[in-house]
Automatic annotation (TrEMBL):
UniProt cross-references to Pfam families, sorted A to Z: HATPase_c_3, HSP90
Top-rank taxon, per record: Bacteria
Residue runs in coiled coils: 492-524
Protein name (record): Chaperone protein HtpG
Organism: Thiothrix eikelboomii
Record's subcellular location: Cytoplasm
Function summary: Molecular chaperone. Has ATPase activity.
Molecular-function GO terms, alphabetical: ATP binding; ATP hydrolysis activity; ATP-dependent protein folding chaperone; unfolded protein binding
């Protein structure tokens, strides 16, 4: 079935919102439209070169890949043209009319209407084709996919207000031509000098020639010819000391579509058994879909400067999925396919080499530029925490890079490293103590910390979701065991003085009856009841087995529909607390049982757990409060 001659279509809602955002928040950076369009044009040429490896006819006798920029100062237009892969009708509709990235809706809902803030948000999304509308009030895109008949070109046109039109047209040459009809106030952009300087500023490093027409006057005759404006060589192949920081940054923006600078990069040439070049960047800001299962972007794989694919799975592990960059191999065959990537020794060793480079870059930054590192950590720390569970061979090195909040700093900022912690350990302290909770406040106010505070022992306060998984996979660091203060029996005996130990013994002796009585009352609900050596000001707390999942996590997973084995907790009580003294004096069995239940339930609540009978708890609490009056 052939498509109708011309039809009008609506943008997906998300596109409309994004267009609006782009137009209103990026006008102070309007020049980037050219970088984005040239970047897309260069990508399209890269894609063609790759497809043509197995099918030379796609070149249609024109293998001189290039991008051309023209302007017309009377018609107020700028044209960007490439002889790359082009698009068919369906591709135009799905690439230009819709946004397929999951999470887009949620992202757009976060927009505030405050242009400054929103301009930052757009960086998380990545600017692209739509940036054309920062300077144009109408855009006409004409394209033909390489290899399809000339009469199957497609013309797309839009004013960004009322959807877009699609039309089948004849296009002699393959590739894409984009005409920007400039807004009145932007007409000054249709100027030879300005365009040349924008191209040099933003697209110098594009590994493809970007050309503009040059008019020459000779003996009264005017002639025009195409002139290459940019350096047009692969930046990553140049030697490091020749490349300026600005060039690295512009190249980063080309490959990432980010409009903010990268935070840092690592550029390496590897020779020997394998030969490859890698240029790996850390972005300054997390993209909005960092936590989506399927990643859109990753590392661009090249083979001898020929772009092969943008790969988000094989060249970086998941915990480094934020890394952007290029790996250019001299060993892989040009016709490498996705299937080959899955089990390929060359890919594997380039991957492990690159992981080492990224970890090394982070290590240096953490040491030499702690403020930069803190910026990195804020954006990507939670992702890096997936590392110890995912990458066994680099576990120790990743662990060194981790940062936590701690009782030492009294702030929710994650700034304390395991090495810092160890350097502050008390005489006789053998373990690294931590607590996990579902918020920083819950962690820092946990009754489990009381004894540690009293003894001045530092405890790491972990409250990211991923922390529970992290502590499941990271059991020790530098020979020191990581120990949850809320799990298992607590043994601080090496840190206790003789007097402490005497005192504990005495309390245990004295409260034997009370403990047994509570145990009898709660026997169906708890594994055990014992005297606590962790508490100084709270009456009770819950202690889990060493391998049990924290209560708040169990609750979360239950909510998500997971079956959780029901494990009974251990209840620890503080006989020095006035509540316990009151219980001891209680003669009414029923009332004693109520006290005991409240003691257990409040400990569960303090732990972020869920009560089986919350109404019962409230009822008992009220009854006891009234009885106190
Ligand atoms: N000049 C072009 N030639 C061929 N296809 C193009 C061209 N410009 C854009 N496209 C297609 O439209 C898609 C969307 O472009 P856009 O710039 O909005 O997003 P993008 O951030 O570049 O996405 P990606 O990084 O996946 O290319 C591109 O991925 C590409 O498939």
């Amino acid at each position: 079935m052939s498509a109708p001659a011309k039809e009008n279509l609506q943008f997906q809602t998300e596109v409309n919102q994004l267009l609006h955002l782009m137009i209103h928040s990026l006008y102070s950076n309007k020049e980037i439209f050219l970088r984005e369009l040239i970047s897309n044009a260069a990508d399209a040429c890269d894609k063609l070169r790759f497809e043509a490896i197995g099918n030379d006819s796609l070149y249609e006798n024109d293998s001189d890949l290039r991008v051309e920029v023209e302007f017309d100062s009377t018609a107020h237009t700028i044209t960007i043209r490439d002889n790359g892969i082009g698009m068919n009708r369906d591709e135009v509709v799905s690439n230009i009319g819709t946004i397929a990235r999951s999470g887009t809706k949620d992202f757009l809902q976060k927009l505030t209407g405050d242009q400054k803030k929103d301009a930052h948000l757009i960086g998380q999304f990545g600017v692209g084709f739509y940036s054309a509308f920062i300077v144009a009030d109408k855009v006409t895109l004409t394209t033909r996919r390489a290899g399809v008949p000339k009469d199957q070109g497609v013309r797309w046109e839009s004013d960004a207000q009322s959807g877009y039109s699609l039309e089948t047209v004849t296009k002699e040459t393959r590739g894409t031509e984009i005409i920007l009809h400039l807004k009145e106030e932007e007409q000054g952009l249709a100027n030879d000098w300005r365009l040349r300087s924008i191209i040099r500023k933003y697209s110098d490093h594009i590994p493809l020639p970007v050309k503009m027409l040059k008019t020459a006057e000779e003996e009264g005759q005017t002639s025009t010819e195409w002139e290459v404006i940019n350096k047009a060589n692969a930046l990553w192949r140049r030697s490091k000391n020749e490349i300026k920081d600005e060039e690295y940054q512009e190249f980063y923006k080309h490959i990432s579509h980010d409009w903010e600078d990268a935070l840092a990069w690592s550029h390496n040439r590897v020779e020997g058994n394998l030969e490859y070049t890698s240029l790996l960047y850390l972005p300054s800001r997390a993209p909005f879909d960092l936590y989506e299962q399927k990643q859109q972007h990753g590392i661009k794989l090249y083979v001898q400067r020929v772009f092969i694919m943008d790969d988000a799975e094989h060249l970086m592990p998941r915990y480094l999925r934020f890394v952007r960059g290029v790996i250019d191999s001299s060993d892989l065959p040009l016709n490498v396919s996705r299937e080959i990537l899955q089990s390929n020794k060359i890919i594997d060793s380039m991957k492990s080499g690159s992981v080492k480079k990224v970890l090394g870059l982070l290590e240096t930054m953490a040491k030499d530029e702690p403020e930069q590192y803190q910026k990195f950590w804020k954006e990507f720390g939670r992702v890096l925490k997936e590392g110890p569970g995912e990458d066994f061979s680099n576990r120790e090195q990743i662990a060194k890079l981790l940062r936590f909040a701690s009782t030492q700093t009294d702030s929710a900022d994650q700034t304390v490293s395991l090495e810092d912690y160890i350097s502050r350990m008390k005489e006789g302290q053998e373990k690294i103590y931590y607590i996990t909770a579902d918020s920083h406040t819950a962690a820092k106010n946990s009754p489990h910390l009381e004894i540690f505070r009293k003894k001045g022992i530092e405890v790491l306060l972990l409250s990211d979701r991923v922390d529970e998984w992290l502590t499941n996979s990271l059991h020790e660091f530098a020979g020191k065991q990581l120990q949850s203060v809320a799990k298992g029996a607590l043994d601080l005996s090496k840190l206790d003085s003789e007097a402490d130990k005497e005192e504990q013994k005495k309390v245990e002796e004295q409260s034997k009856n009370l403990i047994n009585q509570i145990k009898d009352t709660l026997k169906d609900k708890v594994e055990d009841v014992r005297v606590s050596h962790r508490l100084t000001s709270s009456p009770s707390c819950i202690v889990l087995n060493e391998h049990d999942m924290a209560l708040y996590m169990q609750h979360l997973l239950k909510q998500a529909g997971h079956e959780m084995p029901s494990t009974k907790p251990v209840l620890e009580v503080n006989p020095n607390h006035p509540l316990l003294a009151r219980m001891e004096a209680e003669t009414d069995d029923e009332r004693f049982a109520e006290w005991a239940s409240v003691l257990l339930d409040q400990a569960i609540l303090a732990e972020g757990g869920q009560l089986e009978d919350p109404a019962g708890f409230v009822h008992r609490l009220n009854k006891l409060m009234l009885a106190m009056g």
